[in-house]
Amino acid sequence: MKKSLNITWLGEQRYVGVNPSGQQLLIDNSPTKIGVSPMDAVLGALATCTAVDVVDIMAKRRTPLSTYRIEIEGERAETHPKRYTHITVRHIASGEGVTAESLGKAAHLSHEKYCSVAASLNAEMTVEAFVEELQVPG
Description:
By secondary structure, the chain is an alpha+beta fold.
């Protein structure tokens, strides 16, 4: 299954990504941020991906969550490309019958089996880059 996102430069270091359904993602690395940075977006993608799994797993186990949040922190390397070297994900939830053990099992299942963002961050992948010159009429 292929996924796609078209990224358009808006000026400064601000970009908007649009998927084929028209949903937008604002990525902003400019001094006057109005969106998240690219690396914050990575953290957000990981947290959201695992959150979707955990909410679903807990519901299927008949212990639905009444409150849930994730606190995520990433440590980055000092030298370029300044990738994340360590990410800490804290799952904080409550609900009838929810225990730290049951929440931990759901989080572990997500991180180890279901979350495609976590799997992508842990995998070696091929990235192909192509360059295309825009032909301006005139």
